[in-house]
Design brief:
Keywords: Acyltransferase, Transferase. This protein is 29% helix and 30% strand. It has one domain: Aminopeptidase (3-Layer(aba) Sandwich), CATH 3.40.630.30. With 194 residues, the chain is an alpha+beta fold. Strand 2 and strand 3 form a beta hairpin. The chain has a seven-stranded mixed sheet, with helices on both faces. Helix 1 packs across helix 3.
Length: 194
């Protein structure tokens, strides 16, 4: 007689994925951005910037980013839980500061934004998005990834650090609806060496 397993075994995998965004995703990308900013970034972004959020403008901007990217090196990916968009990432060539030279390691791709709606966090969506951006960038000859992170955004900083990223020493200050917002740049080499 075969022993009976102590617990029933469930088979199959979670219904999660990452894919390139399509035009019809723009409303959901804008929704995820708005929700994430209001919930997770309320202590990072100035209240006036959050109050000025316009979902219609965001949707139009994301539609353009998906359907008419400025270069072939720009892209937007979405993370799905079942059929629902729960996160997204946008990437493209970096804008170098006036006194900055191209990185000697080789071409860089900038992670412009990576957001996962907070209620869908801690399920691997951010890691899948980051891995997909790295795979696509490496496939296009990129040697290095970079991302600007608000100095007060400890969650994103910890996420990037756990993925092997580090600060590269550059900082900038943006105008966030009349309030200075200091950002620091993080980076990683796709070959795995820092």
């Amino acid at each position: 007689m075969d022993p009976v397993p102590a617990l029933p075994r469930l088979t199959g995998t979670a219904d999660v994925s990452v894919r390139p965004a399509v035009a019809g995703d723009a409303p959901e990308i804008a929704r995820v951005q708005g929700e994430t900013w209001r919930i997770a970034y309320r202590d990072v972004l100035p209240a006036s910037a959050l109050e000025a959020w316009d979902a219609g403008e965001a949707e139009a901007a994301w539609t353009a980013a998906v359907t008419r990217p400025p270069t072939p090196a720009h892209g937007v990916l979405v993370a799905l839980e079942g059929p629902r968009v729960v996160g997204f990432a946008a990437y493209g060539p970096p804008e170098l500061a006036a006194d900055e030279q191209a990185d000697p390691a080789g071409p860089t791709t900038e992670l412009a934004v990576l957001l996962v709606e907070p209620r869908w966090g801690r399920r691997g969506h951010g890691s899948r998005l980051l891995a997909a951006v790295a795979d696509l960038a490496a496939g296009n000859g990129t040697a290095r990834l970079s991302a600007w992170v608000a100095e007060g955004d400890r969650v994103t900083a910890a996420f990037l650090e756990s993925a092997g990223w580090a600060r590269d020493g550059w900082a900038r200050t943006l105008d966030a609806d009349g309030t200075p917002l200091r950002e620091v740049r993080w980076h990683t080499l796709l070959g795995g060496e820092e």
